[in-house]
């Protein structure tokens, strides 16, 4: 079920991931030392993972998949990027944490896994996963198809409202989707560099930006990408139509790790907030259960 847009995104993510990895040289040590890679929002949704079969869709470089495994899960990560999956396997070997990784477009992988009889206690997706899916209904049906009876779909995602803004909180794009998605010639950004590489979020919430972060914002991916805007209504309807029972839905007034705009306020713990007076939902979390 691969689309031209997904293959375009595969090339863009390969370039972006190679760039992101230059900022993440201490991941294996942190994982070995037991540093948590999962945020409280994920931990609250996932609960006790000991002995549970978990598939992490669009797992990127595998850090969070290995975080799931470190909590006792039998974890599998799936991602479209060749570079990301190679990095994930290397990170697993270097950290000594056992997890499996497969390179595939999730819209292809999900129905094939279901046909093979693979079933999971948890299907997990987080942080920028859904905007890369061209068919949200197929994604939700695929997730439902690999869930064991009583299994959990857990999603922590950036709020679609965030994507309508540009710097200065100007509304530049529609909230509702356009057919075929939105093509960006500049490709996937170096968001790792301008978010994690910037120490300005420490202390009392300063909004300044370091030179390294500013340089990361200027980096241009040589491969274009296509993003798909899904509203909250689209997400909830797709999950419900797939036969899953929504148990929990929450909107959050902060963004974990990602600092899309330089004037966002940090709390010193990796959370970023809009300027005062522009309090908006920046993330949401969703838990849905198979029958």
Describe the structure.
Helix 1 crosses helix 5, helix 6 runs parallel beside helix 7 (136-145) and helix 7 (136-145) runs parallel beside helix 10 (232-241). The chain has a single domain (4-289), classed as Rossmann fold, CATH 3.40.50.150. It has helices spanning 4-21, 27-32, 40-46, 63-70, 82-95, 106-115, 136-145, 191-195, 211-218, 232-241, and strands at residues 53-57, 74-79, 100-103, 120-126, 147-158, 165-166, 170-171, 182-184, 225-227, 245-252, 255-256, 265-266, 271-273, 283-289. Helix 4 (63-70) links the parallel strand 1 (53-57) and strand 2 (74-79). 33% of the residues lie in helices and 23% in strands. The protein has a 7-stranded mixed beta sheet, sandwiched between helices. Strands 11-13-12 form a 3-stranded antiparallel beta sheet, with no helix packed on it. Strands 6-7 form a two-stranded antiparallel sheet. The protein is of the alpha/beta class and 291 residues long. Pfam families: Methyltransf_25. This is SAM-dependent methyltransferase. Keywords: Methyltransferase, Transferase. Residues 54-151 form the Methyltransferase domain. One of its GO terms (molecular function) is methyltransferase activity.
């Amino acid at each position: 079920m691969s689309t031209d847009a997904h293959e375009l995104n595969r090339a863009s993510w390969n370039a972006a991931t190679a760039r992101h990895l230059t900022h993440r040289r201490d991941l294996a040590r942190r994982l070995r030392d037991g540093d948590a890679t999962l945020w409280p929002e994920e931990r609250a949704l996932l609960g006790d993972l000991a002995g549970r079969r978990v598939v992490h869709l669009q797992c990127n470089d595998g850090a969070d998949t290995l975080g799931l495994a470190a909590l006792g899960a039998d974890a599998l990560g799936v991602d479209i990027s060749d570079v990301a999956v190679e990095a994930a396997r290397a990170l697993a070997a270097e950290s000594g944490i056992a997890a499996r990784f497969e390179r595939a477009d999730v819209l292809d992988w999900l129905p094939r896994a279901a046909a093979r009889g693979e079933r999971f206690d948890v299907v997990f997706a987080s942080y920028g996963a859904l905007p890369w899916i061209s068919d949200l209904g197929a994604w939700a049906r695929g997730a439902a198809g690999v869930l064991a009876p009583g299994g959990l779909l857990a999603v922590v995602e950036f709020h679609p409202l965030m994507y309508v803004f540009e710097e200065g909180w100007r509304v530049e794009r529609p909230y509702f989707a356009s057919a075929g998605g939105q093509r960006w010639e500049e490709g996937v950004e170096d968001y790792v560099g301008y978010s994690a590489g910037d120490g300005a979020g420490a202390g009392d919430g300063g909004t300044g930006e370091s030179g390294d972060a500013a340089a990361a914002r200027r980096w241009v991916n040589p491969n274009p990408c296509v993003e798909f805007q899904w509203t909250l209504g689209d997400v909830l309807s797709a999950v419900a139509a797939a036969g899953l029972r929504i148990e929990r839905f929450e909107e959050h007034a902060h963004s974990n790790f990602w600092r899309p705009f330089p004037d966002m306020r940090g709390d010193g713990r990796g959370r970023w907030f809009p300027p005062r007076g522009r309090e908006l939902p920046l993330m949401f979390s969703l838990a849905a259960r198979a029958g």
